[in-house]
Amino acid sequence: GSHKLSSAVCQATDRKCSATGININYSDSGLFGYAVRGTGYEMRAAVEAANKVFKETLSDIKSSDVEAAKNKLKSAYGYYAENDANLMYEIGTKGRALDLNALFQSIDQISQQDVAKFADKVKASPSTASSAGNIMNTPVLQELE
């Protein structure tokens, strides 16, 4: 799901670090960004590479990327629905099974403009950063903006 991030970080650090996208939703807010893992010595290059790709992606929303993401999302939900444990979870917590047809229709309605509008909102939102472990070579937030 985060191929661009992973590739950029692996190239910048000779495959010593990794990165992935983050998307955590709440009813009134959320957290959207990326996480980088690796050795302390390689973190500056890893975080800077991930930040560059993240900003470039937010600034250049392509129709092909939106369609690919929609297909991946539908595929993930289809896989999720095939698992009996997930079916039981859906019935136990929501009182009914997941309606894949309705879900897929909702996903298909997402447009490139919707994604671009969301990207603009992310770019306009204040940034935050968090580090743990050997952070000696990790850039601070002000260096990334």
UniProtKB/TrEMBL annotation:
Any one GO cellular component localisation term in the record: mitochondrion
Organism: Magallana gigas (Pacific oyster)
PANTHER family: CYTOCHROME B-C1 COMPLEX SUBUNIT 2, MITOCHONDRIAL (PTHR11851:SF226), METALLOPROTEASE (PTHR11851)
This protein's name: Peptidase M16 C-terminal domain-containing protein
Domain of life: Eukaryota
GO molecular function annotation: metal ion binding
InterPro entries per record: Metalloenz_LuxS/M16, MPP/UQCRC_Complex
Annotated SUPFAM superfamilies: LuxS/MPP-like metallohydrolase
